[in-house]
Amino acid sequence: MDSSTEPTVEDDFESTILDLTSSQLRDLDSVDLPPSLTELDLTANRLTSLDPRISQLSNLKKLSLRQNLFKDDAVSPLSTWHTISALHELVLRDNQLKKIPDVSIFEMLLVFDVSFNEISSLNGLDKVSTTLNELYVSKNEVAKIEEIEHLHRLRILELGSNKLRVMENLENLSALEELWLGRNRIRTINLCGLKCIKKLSLQSNRLTSTTGLEECVALEELYLSHNGIAKMEGLSTLINLRVLDVASNKLTEVNDIENLPKLEDLWLNDNQITSLDNFAEAVASSREKLITIYLERNPCANSPNYISTLRQIFPNIEQVDSEIFA
């Protein structure tokens, strides 16, 4: 290991954090693992197996195995490592896993990340502790949302870039604040009665309507770009919305957002909006609040005095498309 890739150790009275990121390690034979470690970061190495000494780190709270070469059999020993069962964060992102590993032993787990693998099913999540706050399973091959009903404390669920067609089995996630489902095959919005979500992404799906959000009154950020939405509807109740992204759809006019007083960012670029006539009325409640708007690559963006008209409508605007005002 050359000096540029030497491990970083942070000391209090004794070593508690060991960062071996990008050290090009194939194993940990040359590395000292102090028993006092609370965090071990092995991101971006060439590891194919777990060093058994990790199993004895009784103070360990965070373990990152991100961006290595781990396969299912290689991580299976985790299910028997009782000494580190108090782990709070386990990151297996960007490896070669084909299934959800058994992590039932970690009864205090708060963050679990298996994104960027080859996982085809969420089978096995039913064994994950109910303490979980954040679950990341993006960029896999998952076709169905399942085995998450017991995760009552879950705040963040990331399932983007999978093969999901239906939003389902979300009813019990009463604490969920962020739901990321971009790059799937979803046709209809169904929040299953959840009202607490603050951030929702359904970018790059197969939506044709924005209905289904009416009860999500806590929603602050909504991302719906790159779909087939022809009309904005079901948005008028989202009074806490700050960011609305409906770019790259099939919109011909702006509807149902005249009563959104907190709206700051509005992305409407790459649609078919023909005119700025009645635009002021369409965004009546947010005229003072809005600071960013994207409308480029709409027919209306070719109209005379396009920028000046928008600046008149929105007196506090700071950005129109790529143009930023001091």
Notes on the structure:
- Keywords: Leucine-rich repeat, Repeat.
- This is Protein phosphatase 1 regulatory subunit pprA.
- It holds the Pfam family LRR_8.
- This protein has 326 residues and is mainly beta.
- It has a domain at 222-326: Ribonuclease Inhibitor (Leucine-rich repeat, LRR (right-handed beta-alpha superhelix), Alpha-Beta Horseshoe), CATH 3.80.10.
- It is built from 3 helices and 16 strands.
- It has a 16-stranded mixed β-sheet, with helices on one face.
- Helix 2 links the parallel strand 13 (265-267) and strand 14 (292-294).
- Mean pLDDT is 95; it is low at 1-5 and 9-13.
Briefly summarize what is shown.
With 326 residues, this protein is mostly beta strands. The chain has helices at residues 72-75, 279-282, 306-313, and strands spanning 8-11, 15-19, 39-41, 62-64, 89-91, 111-113, 134-136, 156-158, 178-180, 199-201, 221-223, 243-245, 265-267, 292-294, 319-320, 323-324.
